[in-house]
Amino acid sequence: MARDRDWQPAALTPDYKTTILRSPHAPLLHMPTALPEETGPVFGHDVLQPRDDDLILNYGAEGQAAIGPRILVHGVVADQNGRPLPDTLIEIWQANAAGRYRHHNDGYLAPLDPHFGGCGRVMTDTHGAYTFRTIQPGAYPWPNGPNAWRPAHIHLSILGPSFAQRLITQFYFEGDPLIPLCPIVNSLGNPAAVDRLTARLDMDRAVPMDMLAYRFDITLRGRHQTPFENRTAGL
Ligand SMILES: O=C(O)c1ccc(O)c(O)c1
């Protein structure tokens, strides 16, 4: 099924300032893929380490949990026909509870957490389902305007069976008042597309006395497809 480019964020959205310089200024070229991109490399369960799906514990010293609200995130990855996709690699990266990334380019004054790395990986199971544990990220300021703040979000990369099959996106948390103020969110022209990037509180999967749960389903292509992050929408 062809990608619906009107559903995806436009590459040039001037309110999101970095798109002005980096969006394509010439018409896109169609580059058909060939066997090398369509057949590999194949990622298997052997790429995962035991705590890759547990961002609460996978970075700190043994037994030291990261600081912040503990959450479980889960969902199903499905294709354009709603068929669940097993053995799909999901990579995760995010800021810590204070809104700071463990990255040398992040100069925000909020502290790093010595026990939080902010990266993880998980494979979908035979039912296309995934689950990981993490810390709810904080909102953070960014240099898009005098007082611009990103809503709390978690980045995901979903890799299909070959390199050319990749969806990179970021999801938000239901009820966050910063969502409608964000120019990156608003580069999605359609409220239904914003809805597709909003994880829902899921009390059925919350773990009593431990953590809340959020559900975020991912659909590749089709009418209800999960939108890309703006910076990859041109791909
Ligand atoms: O592309 C950017 O400029 C940009 C800035 C801040 C973010 O949180 C982000 O996801 C992208």
Automatic annotation (TrEMBL):
<keyword id="KW-0560">Oxidoreductase</keyword>
<dbReference type="InterPro" id="IPR015889">
    <property type="entry name" value="Intradiol_dOase_core"/>
</dbReference>
<dbReference type="Pfam" id="PF00775">
    <property type="entry name" value="Dioxygenase_C"/>
</dbReference>
<feature type="domain" description="Intradiol ring-cleavage dioxygenases">
    <location>
        <begin position="73"/>
        <end position="101"/>
    </location>
</feature>
<dbReference type="InterPro" id="IPR012785">
    <property type="entry name" value="Protocat_dOase_b"/>
</dbReference>
<comment type="similarity">
    <text>Belongs to the intradiol ring-cleavage dioxygenase family.</text>
</comment>
<dbReference type="InterPro" id="IPR024756">
    <property type="entry name" value="PCDO_beta_N"/>
</dbReference>
<dbReference type="InterPro" id="IPR050770">
    <property type="entry name" value="Intradiol_RC_Dioxygenase"/>
</dbReference>
<dbReference type="InterPro" id="IPR000627">
    <property type="entry name" value="Intradiol_dOase_C"/>
</dbReference>
<dbReference type="GO" id="GO:0018578">
    <property type="term" value="F:protocatechuate 3,4-dioxygenase activity"/>
</dbReference>
<dbReference type="GO" id="GO:0008199">
    <property type="term" value="F:ferric iron binding"/>
</dbReference>
<keyword id="KW-0223">Dioxygenase</keyword>
<dbReference type="GO" id="GO:0019619">
    <property type="term" value="P:3,4-dihydroxybenzoate catabolic process"/>
</dbReference>
<dbReference type="Pfam" id="PF12391">
    <property type="entry name" value="PCDO_beta_N"/>
</dbReference>
<protein>
    <submittedName>
        <fullName>Protocatechuate 3,4-dioxygenase subunit beta</fullName>
        <ecNumber>1.13.11.3</ecNumber>
    </submittedName>
</protein>
